[in-house]
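Our platform keeps sequence and structure together, in a single record for each protein. Because each token names a local backbone shape, the row as a whole describes the fold. One such record is reproduced below, unchanged from the form in which we store it:
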Amino acid sequence: MSELHKFLFDGLPVRGMIVRLTDAWTEVLARRAANSATGAYPVPVRELLGEMAAASVLMQSNIKFNGALVLQVFGDGPVRVAVAEAQPDLSLRVTATLVGEVPEEARLSEMVNVHNKGRCAITLDPKDKFPGQQPYQGVVPLFDDHGHKLEKLSSVLEHYMLQSEQLDTCLVLAADDKVAAGLLIQRLPLEGEGNLAGSLRSAANEDEIGLNEHYNRIALLAGSLKREELLTLDVDTILRRLFWEEKVVRFEPLQGATAPRFACSCSRERVGQMIRGLGTEEVESILAEQGQIEVGCEFCGQQYHFDAVDAATLFTRDEHHLAPGTKTVQ
């Protein structure tokens, strides 16, 4: 089952998290693969989306925010945009829009940053907005300070976290067809609470960037974690292998009902409402031409099919609830 583990290093200004998405991740892939119109994502896209899913959960659980965290990578490659969304309850969904062939061994730059114009955006969209309040969004390029293309999503997000929070962050991400996982190590702020809206920008925090020896030591250990280890080893083994000389204080893991999980807002009812909005004439025209109406969720890939009987039910449903003598819907 999917799980999220949080921990601190006793007496040190360093915190960490490990996420393992198993059932949540395989459901995402199964829905996409079952879509007859699109089929499964190419392997490099699956790996990118898995890393994004793990990263979005880590970042969402690292802040106190009542709203969606949306991670986007977009550019001018065959993957026009890839999106991962994590809600406050750690429900998640991902999608990608492809506009060309993705090579089997494609790297990040070959998928979204062909001409070094790719970007990564993180949006915090509050659930309960104040009048006129806009979502917060931060954007960073997919290249380093010297203009060199970044080939790891983890490097892009480390750069983002440093700019946004003024805090050192180490990320290790990996994904395959069974597991999407991530390890986050971060230097604790000298003041206030961490968020992704830039409120920690202070001279004290900036002065500590790259200089805290405790963080640097632990980040070096975390960075030695190999992809295969992150994907195959359980959390206890990972922590023991990496930090056996450190005093790690662990919190109750999020598992079972509180664990990260797949969730998409699409439903047959919502699709039915959309079809009703087309009107009877348009729906009858589609049915006459195609025999059925097929609608696929652009986010999760779930397909919904409506035949002539289903469509007729959509338009007669409201009539059963009309007041006596009423023949039209207002």
